[in-house]
Amino acid sequence: MLTIESPATGSKIAEVSEDDAHSIAAKYAAARSAQPAWAVTPLANRCDILRRFRDALLSDVDRLAAVLTSETGKPIRQSRNEINGLPARIDFFLDSVERVLSPREVHNDAGMVERISHEPLGVIANISAWNYPYFVGGNVFVPALLTGNAVLYKPSEFATLTGLEIGRLLHAAGVPAQIFAVVTGDGAVGAELIKQPIDGVFFTGSYATGQRIARDAGARMIKLQLELGGKDPTYVCDDVDIAKAAASLADGAMYNTGQSCCSVERIYVHQKIHDVFVHAFVNEVAALKGGDPADESTTIGPLTRAPQIKILEQQVADAVAKGAKLVLGGARMPSVGNWFAPTVLVDVDHTMEVMREESFGPIIGIQKVASDAEAVRLMNDTDYGLTAGVYTTDERRAKSILAQIRAGSVYWNCCDRVSPRLPWSGVGHSGVGLTLSTYGIEAFTRPKAWHLKSA
Length: 455
Ligand code: NAD
What we know:
By secondary structure, the chain is α/β, with parallel strands linked by helices. The chain has 14 helices and 20 strands.
């Protein structure tokens, strides 16, 4: 049995039965035998089913948001934002899938025709994270289902109730139960799932788990996509509207209590405006309101996972020991549940863990820089490469800086942003493969090359 606890209070909210080797093998076998019929179901029917799922989400937002908030501690307005945000992604996939799947003739000369068609991969495993279960799950299972795959979906053990809701809604919309099966449990259940003879693993989670999955699945020559962590930097130039930049970045660093893969995790500020920026930034963060995540006015919730508190405490202790100055927060909050005060550190440098290791919590280091060149060097001084940004009023300066940055997504005067129209990917320890955009539909297919010569 999997016990689901409230991160806000530590109290038990549910018990859910866990899958085991036997039930996982049965779900795999059912998916394998049902997938060919799903693959030849007309695309228009698959689209209708996913459109019904989209509509069902929208008509049940309040209840679904309450479930998400109860098990992850995400502030309720942010839970609603997430669920309300998924339909736009589904719409993108619905609008684009036919174009992506249409066979293309790429050559026709002297009786030789060359064509490309796209076939589904088959049965895939979708192993997901808890921080945005609708987004990171939907980025995989929506295009996977639309392109004719069967999906064995393992939600995070910290978002199991939401995973079960997603399964229920997809089945009610018309996805056959064998074609989308929810596999419940922790990492050991995920590891068991990967042992099945699946055709692809689409994983969202930490670098450490991504490495293990790459090791376990790598030798099998199946499609492997790993969307992993980040240590996302932003550089604030000397020409910005300081109040505006501070407000935008405080939101980017602290939204979802800092537990976004693309949260701003490091800020570099030009020395000319450093002190004024820090003052404005701290005021923004100090104005955030912690409290019951079910309360409409709450903007900071608990951490979803209790062990993360120790990591944040360690990052603060390490930074302070090496000369950083703590200007806000810095400690767990003395209450039940997984609470950590929003934290701002200045006078930080790259010897400190807070500037190198993913924090995944409401904590940020701000470092002073003397030039654009120094900022670029520091932003690239990382094992990760998910997103990076620059704030400046000068478009040429922004584009020149961003062109030098090694990251999957780059931002000018914005942060913590994902678009269904653009590919979502990372470099280095941030992962391999991508979701979203038309590439993120193709990712669930195998392009087949046709060489056709008339007799
Ligand atoms: P995690 O790695 O702890 O767990 C992710 C999933 O993997 C869970 O479902 C877990 O049960 C499963 N798992 C654990 N061990 C496994 C194993 N050995 N074999 C198979 N499955 C296993 O990550 P998390 O705490 O759920 O998520 C937070 C991390 O995810 C952060 O690093 C964050 O940056 C990253 N993330 C990345 C993106 C992105 O798009 N790049 C999006 C969201 C989250």
